[in-house]
Amino acid sequence: MIYSIFKKVSVIIVSIMLAVPAFADFNVRDYGAKGDGKTLDSPAIDKAIQACTEQGGGKVVVPAGKYLCGSIHLKSNVELNLKAGCVIVAAPASMKAYDKSETFGFPEYQDGGHTYFHNSLIWAEGQENVSITGRGMIDGIGLTKKDTEKGGNVQGGSIGTGDKAIALKQCRNILIRDITIFRGGHFAIIVTGCERGTIDNVTIDTNRDGIDIDCCKYITVTNCKVNTPNDDAIVLKASYALKRAVTCEHILVTNCIVTGYKLGTFLDGTYVPEKVNWVCGRIKLGTESNGGYRDITISNCTCIYSSGLAFEEVDQGLMDNILVTNIALKHVHHYPIYITTGCRNRGPKDVKEPSRGQNIMISNVQALDCDSLAGIIVTGMKDAPLRNISLNNIHIEYRGGGTAEQAAREYREQGTNYPEPRWAGPTPSYGLFARHVDGLKLSNVTFELKKEDKRPAILFEDVTGVDMIQVKGADGKTIQM
To answer: 11: which residues sit within 8 A by CB, 6+ positions away?
Structure first.
C-alpha cells in the first residue's frame, strides 16, 4: 500500500515537472536571426533580449554564424553569450543601423568618444547585472574611428554612425569575459560611471583604444590580451562625461599582455611589429583626468613593442595611491615610465585647484630595448610638485646614442602642453629626468646602454627629499647625489 502511494505521488511529481519546464536559454535564431552575414540581425537579437528581460532575466545565446548588426541594446539581468564560431559583424554606416547619439546638453570638455554612447554596436545605460560572455568574436569592421594620422577628430563622437564596439554607461555589476574583439572602432570597450565589474580573459586586436575605464569604481581587468598598434591599450580616465568630476578609483589591472603589432597580426599569429607612431599600446592613466585617480593597482603585466607606462594628471584632479609592480617591458617606444602633472585644465573655468600627484610606488620593473628619446620621466609643476614617488627594483636597458647637444638642451615645462614625451623631445639625461618633485625614493635602480650616450644618467631640477640607494649608471658605478 505504502509503495503504491509513493509510486503514484512520484508519477504526479514527474508529470508536473514535465508540464512546467525550467526556464530555457533564449536562442536568437528562434527570434528571426539568420546568421548569414547578409541579413541585419540586430533587431532579432534585441527581440531575444527583450523576451529574456520579460521573463526576469537569463541567457541570450548567439550560436555559430555571422550576424550583421547595428546597435544591440543590453538589459538588466541578461547575459549575451556568443558561442564559439559566432561573429557579430558591425554593419556599414550606409545601412543606418546604429542609434543616433544622445543629446549631451552640457559643455563637452572631453572627446566625443567619451561623450556619446548610444551610437555603439553593443550598449547599455543604467542597467544592472549585464554580461557579455563566450568564445565568439565581435568584428567592428563597420565602425568608425578617430583618425590620428589626419589630425584628430576626423571620425567618431556624434557623427551618427557606430564608433564603439561595447559601451556601458552607469551600469552596475558588469561582466565581459572570454570574447574576442577585432577592429573595435574608437573604443573596443568603454565603461563609464560603472560600479563593480569584471573584464576577464578578453582578447582585443583593434585600430584605436582597447579598454577605457572612465569615472568607474571597483573594476577589475584581468587576464586580457590587448593589441593596439595605433593607440592606448588599457586606459583609466576621469573625464567630465557625467557632467561632473568623478574619481576613477579602486581599480585593479593584473595578468594582462599589451602589444603593438600590426592590426590583425596578433589574431592571425604572424605578430608583425607596427612602426613607431605617436603612441603604440601602453597602460595609461589619463589624459582626461578631472576627477583624478585613487587606489589603483597594476601588476603582473607584459608589454611588447609598445609605449611605456604613463601616468598623467593634467586636468586639476588628484592622482593618489598608485601601486605598480611586476611589469616586463620589451622593445619600448619613446620612454619606459612617465609620471607627470600639468595644467591643460580641460574643464570648468571656475575650478582653481591645480593638478596633483602623490604616493606613487613603482617596483619590480624590467624594460629592455628602450627608445633613447627619453629616460624615466617624473615631472610635477613648480607650485604643485609631485610628492612621495618611489621607484624600487627597476632595470632599464636603453639603446643609447644621445648627444652632448641633447644633454645641454632645456627640457620644456609641461604647462598647458599635451602630455606626450614625443612632443617634448629628448630628455637631457638618458636614465631618469625629474623636475618639481618633493620626496623621491630610488632603490636598486640600474641603467644599461647598448651604445654610448653623451647625456648623464640622472638629472634633477627642483627636486627635494631625495633618497637614493644602489642606483647605478651604465658604467656600473653607483650614482651619488
So the answer is: none
